[in-house]
Structures are given as structure tokens and as C-alpha cells.
Amino acid sequence: MGNRFDDSITVTKTGIAITTSGTSAGGAIPTASSGEIPRYIRVAASAAACVRIGAGAQTAVATDLQVQPGDAVILHVPSGVTNIAAIQVAGPGVVQVSPLENC
């Protein structure tokens, strides 16, 4: 009998890396292996950053969702949402975004 890992994730396509600074930066949410925008993404940060998702180009601000260094959040991507942006909290870093396949 095998084990179930209900909290496991599958990542089969490369994500994007957003270099954060005092100015918002962003891009398109990476697609899943199907070529479509995934239903969920994993967002991790090397330094505290604030992130925002939305339809079209986005501008992150200091009051958006904060991702702590060395931590990750799983975000639901609603229909029509195509982009993500990030901004540093106190110092520069990298925000990495991966499309999730099995959610």
C-alpha cells in the first residue's frame, strides 16, 4: 500500500524570477505544461517582498501581500488573471514564481 501526500505539488515547467527593488517589477504568470495560465502558483522570496496579481500589467505597492524570505505562498489564480508584480520591503531580492500542475 502506498502513501498519500496530500500537500505535495507538481512543477513541470520553469517559472519566472522577478528582481525586486524600490520600484515595482513584474511580468506574465508562467504557463502550465498545457500552455494555459495555471489555477495555482507558488511564490517564494529571497528577501521580504510584496506581490500583486491581476489582469494585465500590475504595479506592486507596500500594502500588497507580503512574502517573507525563505517562505513561500500558494496563490489561487482567478480566471482572467495573467500577470504578477513584486516590490522590495526593505532590501533587494528575488521573487520566484512557479506554475503548479496538480491543483
Annotate the secondary structure layout.
Elements lengths: L15 E5 L4 E4 L11 E6 L3 E6 L10 E3 L4 E5 L6 E6 L4 E7 L4
General description of the model:
The model has no long low-confidence stretch (mean pLDDT 92). This protein has a domain at 31-100. Strands 1-8-3-6 form a 4-stranded antiparallel β-sheet, with no helix packed on it. It has 103 residues and is an all-beta fold. Helices cover 0% and strands 41% of the residues.
Major sheet attributes: 4 strands, antiparallel
Strand arrangement across the biggest beta sheet: 1-8-3-6
Low-pLDDT runs: none
* Structural class assignment: mainly beta
Percent helix range: under 10%
Number of contiguous helices: 0
Coarse shape: globular
Mean pLDDT: 92
The end-to-end distance, rounded to whole angstroms, is 24 Å
Percent of residues in β-strands:
35-45%
